[in-house]
Specification:
The protein is α+β, with helices and mostly antiparallel strands. The protein has 9 helices and 7 strands, in the order ααααβαββαββαααββ. The relative contact order is 0.08. The protein binds adenosine-5'-diphosphate.
Length: about 325
Amino acid sequence: MLTNLKLRLLSYLVILYMLVAFAWWSVLLYSKNKDAYYAKIELLKIGMSAEGIYRSNEHFLHTKEYLELTKKYQRQEWMIFGEASVFIISLVIGIWLINRGYNKEIEIAHQRRNFLLSITHELKSPIASIRLVLETFIKRKLNPEQIERFGKNAIKDSERLNELVNNLLFAAKLESAYQPHLEPVRLDYLINNIVDSISEKHPKVIFLKNIQNGIPIIEGDQNGIVSVITNLVENAIKYNFTTQPKIEIDLQQGNEKIFLNISDNGIGISDREKNKIFERFYRVGNEDTRRTKGTGLGLYIVSQIVKAHQGKITVADNIPKGTIFKIVLPKK
Ligand code: ADP
């Protein structure tokens, strides 16, 4: 990191030197050109005097030779200014582009590191707990109740692992060849099912559904859309540390579009992070996020699925606190 910073500083110094050196050469060229111009005028005057053409300074300033010389000088002056400006502008644009690329590289490296850290943790903890359950089964005599409890926990962990691997595979597929498998999808029905199954797992969460009557059936990838809604609802619960998490799901239709809003009263997302959260492996780097499990793949998958349905997803602040994810899908 320190070497990177040193290299960066060094390259800025070199660039600064180039700029100053070029500015210096431009000024020098400009003043030499001016000197040459004055010398040529003097020479012209002497030549004219020798030929007896020179009458007065006033007359000299109107002669064809003087005017041509001045015009040429002014052209050269503009050339120097022009070349210097083009050089400086291209240098500045070049530096800006290099800097942008460099920052992107750093961000990608940072994300990769975050991803490796979180994925290692996400893989290790369910594996460790499944192992513990199996070891307990072998070493201890358990009663049927304990067997059921431990067994259920192990199943939950294996589901978590399965979900993680599926997400990874799905994200890899999105990179290369995701084509939504189109079929008739009833959004209102899906939302009701998803909310029912999630609220079973999270009885404390309050769900408010506002589903307009007569929402048309759309053509879409049912599994993909289920994954979008599930991800958003699960995030709304995960990033919510209030005693009473409240999630509102709003489904409305316009003339040509369908509007799905999922709002929560959770920790919210700062403006700076709002357009980054849809990037692959991006996790908001604050303490609240760090205490939650995740890989930063969920919203990337969500946004890619919405995009594949020619839809749009945006995020806004909820009032008084929390987040609203807004999805607009075409009616098809
Ligand atoms: P993960 O949940 O695995 O970290 P996601 O791609 O689903 O990855 O989310 C990316 C980041 O966006 C999360 O790390 C979190 O900081 C933020 N985020 C997502 N949904 C919410 C939400 N409803 N409220 C607050 N922050 C959220």
